[in-house]
Amino acid sequence: MDNLLRAAGLDRARSIEEACRLVAAARGKPLEVVEGDLGPGVTGLWLAFPERDLVLVDARQTLPGPHRDHVVAHELVHVLDSIRPGPAPGPVPAGCRDEHDDPAEQRVERLASELMISIASHGSSAARLTSLELYR
């Protein structure tokens, strides 16, 4: 497993809910997963606020179960990528990528897949995001 995921303890996660709690702990603030209407072609989005992180999942464009969990895992990798030692360099610009040949987005997809494979190997097939809630 990649060092970014391992550093947050995600190599031990048994569910996507547990992964959300671990990422929230790594960031030092709550992480909330909610459904939203994100528009055509956007399945997930991460928004960072001073008091919490928000992962939006488009319920109309994602299938319940593994697909939705993978969308959440993808956004969790973006959240982990934002953790840098030292002072923040300033606002992080929002990014919305839909090009599959973008190397940064390919890396995030690969890490999200690694996380999902790890969860599947530790948990059960029932260990899926079954509720949308706030993780602390």
Automatic annotation (TrEMBL):
Residues 84-103 are annotated as: Disordered. This is IrrE N-terminal-like domain-containing protein.
